[in-house]
Amino acid sequence: MCELKARRPPASSQNPDRESPSGGRQEIYSPVVLIVSLFLRVAYAFLYLLSTTLTSRSMRHTALRHLERRNGEVKPEAHLRSLVAVGLLIVLWLIDYGWSLGYRLYLIIPILSTSFCVVSILYFFLAVQTYLVEIYPMYAASGITASIVVRSIFVLTAPLTATHLFAKLGIGWGNTLLGVLAAVMVTPATLWLPKYGEGIRMTTRFMPKFSFRTVWWF
């Protein structure tokens, strides 16, 4: 009896699962949804239009001029040379964010601090990912997976101390401590790898035996 009752559609159901398909159809006729969708359509169109210029002839000529200054060869360690400055920017923006919240400054200051910090972290992330792909082209997926496992362990355990850290030190000194730890852990590697990274990776068993020379086809 319960099964038959459950299968029987009621006259007016309060179950959102029964009404969600019709709700999505009704939202299409909403002027607000149409206006917001228009904004997204323009943004996505411009995004894909810009992506078509990345392989254009002018972009390739710009890259070729860069390669000519380096005799046509760019080593993977070139992606790591700017990480020292980017790492210091991450530390500075992290400390600035903490103290701007600690002194309760105007809202735009911590917003800008977090924005620039996120952009710096994204640049750091992309540079490291590109470096891993270039040093192990045949095992790029394995190299990236290994880095994901290592950083996921740290990401899992680090936030567990955030509550106690900021409760004892405050947001200002807590972020300062995090910035100092980041500088101590990241700066030596960013200084050491661009200089000695090639010699280390050439001794690994998964290192391909060919030159890192970029070839452009027209």
Automatic annotation (TrEMBL):
Top-rank taxon: Eukaryota
Molecular-function annotations in GO: transmembrane transporter activity
Keywords, alphabetical: Cell membrane, Membrane, Transmembrane, Transmembrane helix, Transport
Annotated membrane topology: Multi-pass membrane protein
GO cellular component entries: plasma membrane
Start and end residues of each stretch annotated as Disordered: 1-24
Gene3D superfamilies the UniProt entry points to: MFS general substrate transporter like domains (1.20.1250.20)
UniProt key word Ubl conjugation: no
The name this protein goes by in its record: Transporter
Keyword Membrane appears in the UniProt entry: yes
Organism: Podospora australis
Entry's transmembrane regions: 28-50, 78-99, 105-126, 138-160, 172-193
Subcellular location: Cell membrane
